[in-house]
Design goal:
The chain starts with a helix and ends with a helix. It has a two-stranded antiparallel sheet with strand order 1-2. Helix 2 packs antiparallel against helix 6. It has one domain (about 1-210): Rhomboid-like fold. It is mainly alpha-helical. The protein has helices at about 1-5, 20-35, 40-50, 50-55, 60-65, 75-95, 95-120, 130-145, 160-180, 185-205, 210, and strands at about 150-155, 155-160. It is built from eleven helices and two strands; from the N terminus they run H-H-H-H-H-H-H-H-E-E-H-H-H. The longest helix is centred in the middle third of the chain and has 26 residues, at about 95-120.
């Protein structure tokens, strides 16, 4: 009971647009990465991307920094679109401090799972970047908190939030699998979902699966 009490200890509620700050940070890093010379891009990937062999050698910060790099504009756009539409609402519900903890826990857990999967498969030189693992956690939280919310696509067509979340998740999975040669990276998204599920269960006593299906 004491352990669960510790996990459920709330933060003082604050709202300071953490989701928007994350979008600006990701966009800024992408611009530096995109316009920089090849040598700079290589150095940024070597330093901040999730590379299993380098993490085993001590570059453990990559389990967090990989979330701020993206391969191209479409990779960045879809992740930031999800963070804007879903993350802002989740942040308002949780509070900014809780949201930041949630976001980074999901991203870290997704990165750690990916690292373990790559090491197990012997793919030490794989380069993994992107905020998808954290974004998938945000998507699950949105569906759990607002399972009956309607979102108006193009301002006209009402779509139930869980359905739109699934559509967005499908687009992200398809996009990630197209850009991945290893066939393992898409598991990062599932790890983000799993981390969010456990987080909501421990911190909020919300079973996201039951909430998602209205039980």
């Amino acid at each position: 009971m004491k352990m669960f009490s510790f996990f459920q200890r709330p933060f003082r509620y604050e709202f300071f647009n953490a989701a928007i700050i994350l979008i600006l940070c990701n966009t800024g890093v992408f611009l530096i990465f995109a316009i920089g010379p090849d040598r700079m891009q290589y150095r940024m990937l070597e330093t901040f991307a999730l590379i299993p062999g380098l993490i085993k050698s001590g570059s453990v910060w990559q389990l967090v920094t990989y979330m701020f790099l993206h391969w191209d504009i479409s990779h960045l756009f879809f992740n930031m679109l999800g963070l804007f539409f879903f993350g802002v609402q989740v942040e308002r519900h949780m509070g900014s401090r809780e949201f930041l903890l949630f976001y980074f826990v999901c991203g870290f857990a997704a990165g750690l799972f990916s690292f373990a999967a790559y090491v197990f498969s012997g793919a030490y030189g794989v380069v993994l970047i992107g905020a998808s693992g954290a974004i998938y956690g945000v998507l699950l939280a949105f569906a759990a908190f607002f399972p009956r919310a309607d979102i108006y696509v193009f301002g006209i067509i009402p779509v139930r939030a869980p359905i739109l979340v699934l559509i967005y998740a499908g687009i992200e999975i398809f996009s990630q699998m197209r850009g991945s040669r290893s066939g393992v990276a898409h598991l990062t998204h599932l790890a983000g979902f799993a981390a969010a599920y456990v987080y909501l269960l421990l911190r909020y006593r919300i079973n996201a699966i039951k909430a998602f299906f209205g039980r």
